[in-house]
Amino acid sequence: MQAKMIFEEDAESDPTIRSTKVDKPLELELDIGNLLASDPNELNLKHLKSKNPNGYLQSLARDNTQLLINQIWTLPFERVDDVVIAKLPKPEYLLPREKPAPKGKQMTKWETYAKDKGITKRKKTKLVWDDLVKDWVPRYGYKRAAAEHEKDWVLEVPANADPFEDQFEKKSEAKSERVAKNELQRLKNIARARKVVVPSAGLTLTERPDKTELNQAMHVAKKATASLGKFQQKLPREKPLKNAGKKRKFEPLVQESGKEKNMNLNVLDNVMNKKPLMATEKLVSRGLREGPKEPVENSFEESEKRGRRGGMKGTKNTKAKKGSVRKGGFKKGRAAPRSKPKKKRQ
């Protein structure tokens, strides 16, 4: 109230400062919580059609704002670090949302079934007493596996099971199958909540097919009939498939007398006059694999150092055994020559 009185005194002394008192025929509808002021008074059409309508609108906005600020000064306030803070009441007018309100999370199959049957979820304890281990075992977590290993250190082989089958491996496979089944069910729940159509069999497409792929698939589907699409009706504005492949053309069975002869002669000339092509790629790869050759001078010097016996391989102890090599040797892959029959002595 003291600040309001000070402003009024300043407005009376200085004509440039406008007064905080504003008179209106009808009171404004104020919503202090939203800092909203609605003016039900009619606009002055004479001032709106004058040469300076913006001045009239600015003056009207200033008066309405002044009334809103006057109402704020009547609220209880407090000082925080030399700052005056007014406590606004709850808003009366509900502002419309820009976007629709978020929908509730779609229930899974189990949640829907539990709601229909009236099944309520009971809060379970984290630890469970195990009679075999004689200790409190966690229901889940990293210590659960250690407790299971300590509990099932030996497994009984059923009577109808294979005695050589690993029961521990069978148990782990069954557990992994259960985990995979639960994961598949979780993904199905997510797809159902997002309204995604999941095929019953096969894999989903990772990419969207483009226009050409769809056009090609349409033509393939049209030809999947008994008549290969010959009597299939065309769609309106259907474009022909580009690069659909050309039909193979065979030579006629009956040709001119000289044409077939010339074709055979050309084939014969190509075969007879064919020159061997050097495999440059093989030569280059072999050169890279073997590396650069040594110069001739170095090889000559090394041959002098080795002497006459330098080219012989082996050591002193390696001698050819008797009978290991035949004089009349034969090539690999051929049969040995048959020896002549000995003549009988008379």
TrEMBL record:
Record keyword Nucleus present: yes
GO annotation terms (biological process): endonucleolytic cleavage in ITS1 to separate SSU-rRNA from 5.8S rRNA and LSU-rRNA from tricistronic rRNA transcript (SSU-rRNA, 5.8S rRNA, LSU-rRNA); ribosomal large subunit biogenesis
GO CC entries: nucleolus; preribosome, large subunit precursor
Biased composition (Basic residues): 306-346
Keyword entries, A-Z: Nucleus, Ribosome biogenesis
Function: Involved in ribosomal large subunit assembly.
Family: Belongs to the RRS1 family.
Name of the molecule in the record: Ribosome biogenesis regulatory protein
Organism: Allacma fusca
Superkingdom, natural source: Eukaryota
Comp. bias (Basic and acidic residues): 283-296
Entries under InterPro entries matching the protein: Ribosom_reg (IPR007023)
Subcellular location: Nucleus
A Pfam match: RRS1
Keyword hit for Heme: no
Region described as Disordered: spans on this chain: 282-346
